[in-house]
Design brief:
Number of domains: 2
Structural class: mainly alpha
Helix content: over 70%
């Protein structure tokens, strides 16, 4: 009897432990279902916003969820959770594809009714505003009517084109959301049913064991021992089956969580790759624009530099060439070949000025694109032009009289030769 009592006590303890485990498992499923519901609610709101321009397509989001095939007790809870998650993922992909369509995206931000109202206001403004600007009133009304009617027709044509473009994606989006809701509701019922049925089964087992205990107390010790051994064997089998079921459920949930984690990581990596690609494209575009603007600025600066500096050097080169032609250097060879000029040049070369551009321009550009078109140091000839500028004054403090006379004689010879 003592052993039977201890066995009953242990069985009740096992019942309490199993009940706690079942409640913990049920709470974990409820938390996971709550997360899925929140994610699906956010997805439904985003889908309703995207389909706002097409009420006939958005109406499918408000339809009540249907019923899953089969009774809730005959379906696996983990399979329902995976199905709900897969349908939600499918709906999210369909929503992203739908948002990439230009016309449906336009009408999701600007409903066609609002667009028509704006066109009517614009048409009315043209009809009543153009006469104020001097246009004929009848012509103004025709223009206003053309803008209102034509714009409305274009808006409705675009609305139809956008609907045909996004109908398939909208159907996939709404059906996936509806299937996800159905799977979530069925999973909720299955979770409640599994919990209640398992608790009832455990309590029934305890009641059966209590009844057997009462019968065994009335039977012989040998029969009691045999029945107790048989009952213990059945109990061991049930406990092993229960633990095996718990292990299988835990492994299935773990595999589901791992798959979900991998899928979400892959989605995040795709979004990050797309974001990085967009940043790279924007950076390359901005860099190309800056490079183009930089080159345009440099070309303008280089052109302005050449327009300002090159004529000066060309004029200096022309002066030097003209002076060298009129006043060649006096050498023995040039004197031997000298002939009287056919025309009289009313000028005489006086000397040259040593020009150092680096000394004159302290802030000269250092870029090779703004280089000087000639040397930065050169000799600029000086001539006396008769009779406009034929005066020459040589001053001295008393010395150099012979050099001044020689310079004057050379100047006269230059003028005469």
């Amino acid at each position: 009897v003592y052993q039977l009592q201890m066995a009953m006590i242990q069985q009740k303890r096992d019942l309490i432990t199993s009940r706690d485990q079942l409640h913990q498992r049920h709470e974990a499923y409820q938390a996971e279902l709550a997360q899925e519901r929140d994610a699906l609610v956010k997805l439904r709101k985003a889908a309703a916003k995207a389909l706002r321009g097409y009420p006939s397509l958005a109406r499918a989001l408000t339809q009540p969820a249907g019923k899953e095939e089969g009774s809730p007790s005959g379906q696996d809870l983990d399979s329902l959770m995976i199905r709900a998650r897969d349908e939600r993922t499918k709906a999210g992909e369909a929503l992203r594809e739908y948002r990439r369509l230009g016309i449906p995206k336009l009408f999701s931000s600007l409903p066609v009714s609002l667009a028509v109202m704006l066109l009517i206001l614009i048409a009315a403004g043209l009809a009543f505003g153009l006469p104020q600007a001097g246009l004929d009133p009848s012509l103004s009304r025709i223009i206003g009517a053309a803008v209102g009617v034509g714009g409305s027709l274009i808006a409705f044509v675009l609305l139809g084109i956008g609907k045909s473009q996004g109908a398939a994606l909208a159907e996939t989006l709404t059906s996936s959301i509806r299937h996800a809701r159905e799977a979530q509701e069925t999973a909720q019922k299955v979770a409640e049913s599994d919990l209640q049925s398992t608790l009832n089964r455990l309590e029934q087992q305890v009641e059966d064991s209590s009844a057997e205990f009462d019968e065994q107390r009335k039977s012989s010790p040998e029969a009691t021992q045999a029945e107790r051994a048989e009952r213990q064997q059945r109990l061991d089998v049930q406990v092993a089956r229960l633990f095996a079921h718990h292990d299988a459920v835990g492994a299935s949930r773990e595999a589901s969580l791992i798959a979900t984690h991998q899928s979400e990581n892959a989605e995040l990596e795709r979004e990050a790759s797309g974001f990085i690609a967009d940043l790279d494209a924007k950076h390359e575009g901005a860099h190309a624009q800056l490079t183009h603007a930089y080159e345009v600025h440099w070309n303008q600066l280089e052109s302005a530099w050449n327009d300002a500096i090159r004529p000066v050097y060309e004029e200096i080169a022309a002066l030097r060439t003209h002076a060298d032609g009129l006043f060649p250097e006096w050498t023995r060879e040039s004197l031997d070949r000298w002939k009287a000029p056919a025309d009289f040049a009313n000028a005489a070369r006086l000397g040259s000025v040593d020009v150092n551009v680096s000394s004159l321009a302290k802030a000269r550009p250092q870029s090779p694109r703004l280089a000087l078109p000639g040397p930065d140091r050169f000799l600029l000839p000086i001539s006396l032009v008769m009779p406009q500028r034929g005066s020459l004054l040589l001053e001295s403090d008393g010395g150099g009289r012979e050099e001044m006379i020689a310079s004057l004689n050379q100047l006269i010879l230059r003028l005469l030769s």
